[in-house]
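Hi everyone,

Forwarding the result from last night's run.
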Amino acid sequence: MFDAYVHGAMDRRTFLEKAGKFAVGSVTALTLLEQLAPNFAMAQVISPEDARLRAEYLDIESPKGYGKVRGYLVRPAAAERRLPGVLVIHENRGLNPHIEDVARRIALEGFLVFAPDALFPLGGYPGNEDAARDLFQKLDQEKTRRDFISAAKFLKRRTECTSRIGAVGFCYGGGMVNYLATRLGDALSAGVCFYGSAPDSGDVKKIEAPLMIHSAENDERINASWPDFERALQAARVAYERFLYPGTQHGFHNDTTPRYDDAAAKLAWDRTIALFRAKLA
């Protein structure tokens, strides 16, 4: 039910009505929703003020998209050489504090990281998850896709970047990584998709980057597309790995919610960083 609510298939009122049957004693349906909602402060791993990093917000040009995109650029403060780049793509909430934290985590692994905010043309992440979800539904997705292409090209051209870039995304962002792989050709050196939607089957043959797919076992909506996606990958001879994490729910890497699975998230993270180190070096 919460997954349906998060992805717009159920509104807040309907969720609360259906959640009422699970509310017992002093626990109300609203309490259940609050317990399922993200807790950014509790899950923060790397402080925005961490002295090991240099971070800033930058606006970039996206003439074929919304015109401008704002993103969060992070790099190791002590870096004395050019670094491989990683584009970090958020869930369907925009650039919230959790994704900024993920960007900092990757930067500390020795990468130049750029995390764009798809909601920037509508005012940016509003500071509230429900409001962010509502805003997200108002985006022109064709313009948004072009914004992410612009962000990838921006990162690749940065003087601090070796020009080799990878991309990692979560949920909506995972699907965007798959889409970018069909559009960027060899300009993308590796893509990592966490429980994201598959690209159009006819576009899979355009993929040149190796892909890593992280899937939750209990994720019927996303997993339903995997068989066709895999057949297309095999037919196009695309290099890929897919990992299915037993007992996990969609969103298992997001440590701000109760869906987080510590063991699966850490294993998926280690595999992701290992791929980037191997393919972006």
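Residues 262-280 form the longest helix (19 residues).

Cheers,
N.
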